[in-house]
Amino acid sequence: MTDRERPCSDGQVDAFSCREVDLKAFLPTKTIGGDRGTHITDIWGWTDPKTGTDYALVGRTDGIAFVDVSSPTSPTYVGELPQTEKARINSWGDVKVYEHHAFAVADNAGDHGMQVFDLTRLRDVTPSEQPVTFDADAHYDRVNSVHNVFVNEETAYAYLVGSSGGGTTCGGGLHMVNVQDPLNPTFEGCFTDPSTGRSSAGATHDVQCVVYQGPDADYQGREICVASNETALSIGDVTEKDSPVQVATGSYPDHAYVHQGWFGPEQRYFYLNDELDEVQGKVDGTRTLVWDLQDLENPTLVNEVVLDQPATDHNMYVDDGLLYESNYTSGLRVLDLGDPTQPTERAHFDTKPRGPNAPGFAGSWSNYPFFDDGIVVVSSIDEGLFVLEKPKQGL
Fold first, then answer.
1. pLDDT digits over 279-304, tens only?
2. Is residue 1 part of a domain?
3. How far apart are CA 55 and CA 67, in angstroms?
4. From CA 266, how far away is CA 197, in angstroms rounded?
5. Which of 272, 239, 244 is nearest to 256 (CA)?
6. pTM above 0.85, yes or no
7. 2: in domain
8. Angstrom distance (rounded) from CA 318 to CA 324
9. Domain count, the chain
10. Which domain holds residue 141?
């Protein structure tokens, strides 16, 4: 579905349920390099500072697809980075960016490690050459399988989490890598919180690390990581990589699987999701947990926002006062943070057109809302890539 914008009208775009979100384009998995049986995983984005071209970096179960979305209604598949030769096809892949390099990992993938790819190579691909199969520019082999990677672009550190299968796994916690020289990543330390997680080591599922500028004066200017550790929220000060410090742990009695979260504006509130609470029947609808981190040493759960759909929640990000949630079978849900402790649903686009919005693991995996041109790109496991227009301000 390309070549023209398809507006959300009377709650629908073709077969897709929507509210205040228009469809710019939809590319099925097969059109971005996916063979039969290939599924879509995570997604990130990069804007070429020289050309201004926006690219979606779309995870597939066999690698990464690069899609030029600078013309949102006519995205083009530029090429792919297959997973490493020794790796096996897997259900989890993740990619993040520092300056003009992408860092790609895969979980339950055997000896995959972390691939490093110079994204400026995309600008040299002519239309007649598309799609190109690329190779990595560097390979980091201190770990094998990695569930997720986060890059703090302010400090040029990559945080590999959920590592397993060999190498320096750091017990599944933070495996900290200096990527200031992206083609020569350097291991600098581990951080774990043994009081959390389903194993004694304190495994981390996902993390956000920032140079903290929030309200807690004791930690301003420090590099703070807020980790989702299966059973609890874990806050660490990783400014000194050889001597990181556990700051605090926050949990709640009916947790099922503490999955992922993101700071809101001004770094006071942190929005958290729990991937299994809907599946286990602990809540009636998609739940977002609102934490007040005014005092980093005393994280306080201040609200639980439950939407009217029972879909399982997955990855979510905050941009310009809006919380973009990929909630699997109910697709992209956009919450307004005008009252930061009382997020309210403002818009949506359901990327899975058939079946109920029931708990389970199908539909939208993730999204990337940080482009400057008013679009959000969304990955959907069995469907492919969606390019959507952000909801308009002032609704």
1. 999 999 999 999 999 999 999 999 99
2. no
3. 5
4. 28
5. 272
6. yes
7. no
8. 6
9. 1
10. 12-389
